[in-house]
Give the backbone structure.
Amino acid sequence: MGMVKTVIYDGAEVAGQKAVAVGGGRILALGPGELLRRAFPEADLRQVAGRFSPAFLDGHLHLLAYGRALGELDLAGLELGAAREALLAARAARAGWLRGRGASTGLLAGLAADQDILRRLAPLRVWAHDLHTLLSDPESVRALGLDRHVPPGGAVERGQDGLPTGLLRETAALPLAKAADEDEGGAEAAVERAIRDLWRRGIVGAVTFETPEGVKAVASATGRLPFRAYVYQTADSIGEGTVPHRLGRRAALVGAKFFLDGTLGSRTAWLQAPYADAPGLGLPRHDPDELRAPMQSLARRGFSLAVHAIGDAAAEAALGLLAPLPPADAPHRIEHLQLVPEGFSRRLRAADVTASIQPCHLDQDLEDARRAWADRLGRAYPYHALCDAGVRIALGSDAPVESPSPALNLKWALGADAVGGGARHRLDVGEALRGYREGVYGSVGRRCEDIAPGAPADLALYRQGPEHGEEPLLVLSEGQEVFRAAEAYVEQ
Ligand SMILES: [Zn+2]
């Protein structure tokens, strides 16, 4: 008998068969259970029911930020009174930074209106759900000098008395977020927390966007845990001599990330025409011309470039920057693409740029989109139009901005016609699942293997499937059971 234990899962549908033998991290054989038991007489036998699907890779998330968010107060969906109570209770329970997330921008404005409470909650750091607006307390804002110096590309809101209210937008939020997060420490433990949560959702790898602290933590955590990571690092933190490279056993630094704008919820997405419900064109984070030289330098070194672009002006600028660059092993990509110019899909296809999309953002954004882009909804969330034009779409969750649940993402991919701009939004089940699998693999320059002998044993067992809103019963990563629900095994 070899060192590696073989396990036969019998009774669930798996690529047209009724049983699968797994060993050494790979699929060894498929077939009727009886046949596999004869072929592998020493194997452990597990009786299961339902259907095996390939496990997912998430096409865009933030492992370190997600792991940290799992340890924070979740304010999503709370009214002002309930949020105040929850924050005050959390304040009473512990010293040090009080961290929250998931708040609507309206809730943050409501909390900021009562400066006395903010003082009682100090030191405070509450993120809006989109991670582009942050609420702190007046003392912490002063301590970091943000009342005297506003970083370029950011905004510090002031009250009628001229003093900061505690609301910080875009780059102005970053020094405060950094101070609060560094105080917590434990980056590798946070990444491990994120990985364990992702496993139970049927996700065994991800394209993850990280600061240097996150890159290090991801490299060490994935050395121990069977989870694959394709890492994009914030571009301005990549040293001049650095080239793409492996980060230990299961991670690789493949890309560099740039920002061109903010978000719809904060009305900082950069638009070609003013918002229908707010003044202005949003808040470009950079002059695109200033990004040209650093982008060329990184692309020449082999980095795949990812550009955050939510509004149509940002999308146009992103494509203008990416199209002339030399190709990398992993194609260049644009993140989010929530509003695009007319005829954009064909040009994206011609430039072989990946559309990295997160249908689950509609969970928070749908009402905003209908108000802010009422006059241009046909160009918003154009998932089906991208697919039709042959663009490589890669589905992701943007966790911690949204839940990483594939069921939630698939619900919105299949329900995107709720945007209301016509037939250009909704994906069918086949398109959505291909975008989640082949699309994400293709986005990092890899082929997605079918469930077949020799392929990695990265499998998730469902009653029917994630497209039916289900979470998995059992998840294998490299053949290891990384998650098993109580009811996963059937009594024999
Ligand atoms: Zn993101």
The first strand starts at residue 7 and ends at 14. The radius of gyration is 23 Å. The chain has three domains: 7-47+451-484, 67-183, 186-443. The pocket of zinc ion is lined by residues 60, 62, 209, 398 (CB under 6 Å).
